[in-house]
Amino acid sequence: MTPKERYIKLKEHLAEENPLLVEVIDRYRDLDTIARSIGFLDKNETYTASISWWPLIAILGTFSAGKSSFINEYLGKKVQNTGNQAVDDKFTVICYSKNEEITTLPGVALDADPRFPFYNISTQIEKLDPNDKNINRYLQLKAVKSDKIKGKILIDSPGFDADVQRDAILRITSHIIDLSDLVLIFFDARHPEPGAMRDTLNHLVQTAITHTDADKVLYILNQIDTCAKEDNLEEIIGAWQRALSQKGIVSGKFYAIYNESLAHIEDPELAQRLKKKKDEDLSAITEKMEKVIIDRAYRIAKNIETRAKEIIEQIEPLKEKLSTFKITMLVIDIVLIVIVGGISYYLANIIDFSYSNYLFIFLFFLIFLTAHFKLKSVISSYMSKKIENSTIKKAFIKHTRWVKPYLLAGSFLNRKKIEEKLSSLINASKHFIQKLNDQYINLKKEEHITEA
Ligand SMILES: Nc1nc2c(ncn2[C@@H]2O[C@H](COP(=O)(O)OP(=O)(O)OP(=O)(O)O)[C@@H](O)[C@H]2O)c(=O)[nH]1
Ligand SMILES: [Mg+2]
Question: Which stretches make up the Dynamin N-terminal domain (predicted)?
Fold first, then answer.
């Protein structure tokens, strides 16, 4: 997808799902143009591809814990199949669509849609599992018309059961945890004890706690209505939290819920007690699921500032490298002229060139230019290898290509002018953040009014 196509597609989706962000695309386009003019971006690259525009919420956990039922309830639609046997055997990426009908697409469709942070996911899956290149075996995409999913993406996953999980699923899970803004790990209140915490679940919990962003993980004990028979909710929650703390999760966000439409609690008093607990925890979970959209919007706006500052910082080192290159080439050219000129003069004295001065001049230039271009490419590749920063390296290579006159290298980089343009972009990003703040405050106010 070309940058232009990406801007258009992103704008289309944003207009539908998160209109506030539409104007930000133009700022990204401006940023791309500046970075491209310096050489920090290739013409087919864009910063819009290096950030995920839609927040990702992953729903992971043991098999039959009620992950898919939770998603259906949340969306208010039966999107996923549910059942007591292991139902899901692949990841389902769920996103918004205008169409009433639920559309199911194969995993490769994810590559073509700019909403997904899985930039070229099929290539990444190939990297994860070179023997199994069929991305459709692991992933599918469902597009659903539900206001609840506007501006965000949910991922339903296959349940974690010991033994049967293949390596690829585990690795995709780690990858998904990395990419996600929020991770809900579901446990089954019918088996909360450590025995249920088998290899694959251990892996999941370990990946989640060792993650730098462990705060984004919520631990959810589901189906607590099943505690009603023995009225032992506290005991069950205790056993579950002990099991988790043995795995190293000492603090964290623990919730206990159930799916009201699937539960049958006979004792009305107990039903009320469980419902109260469930309502509290469920609203905390859904509030977090809503908040990811705002957090993501802030990150998208802030990213303009970060990128702009990065560019400003990288201009000077690039100019320095280019000026070293220029001086080196100038010295080389002087030396070349002296050597080639000397040899030519010597040859002209011993060989009789008198009948063709042109041939003599032609030979001089031929030798000089061949040596010049050869040495230019050797010096450029030698110097670029020593540049650690890949962005600066890319721009350096671009400006020292053989077609570029080296005497002009770097002279077009008017730092002051570029800085002025970037500062106005930084201001635009700050202004946008202010707008987000205003909207967020207004939302909160509206909530208070409706609550009151
Ligand atoms: N009583 C009760 N049953 C539930 C609850 N949530 C889900 N179930 C039932 O539990 C079974 C498993 O639910 P699913 O939603 O398919 O579970 P899953 O985690 O998606 O399972 P896999 O996709 O197989 O990993 C289904 O029969 C659901 O009807 C709940 O809160 N309470
Ligand atoms: Mg399921």
Answer: 57-205
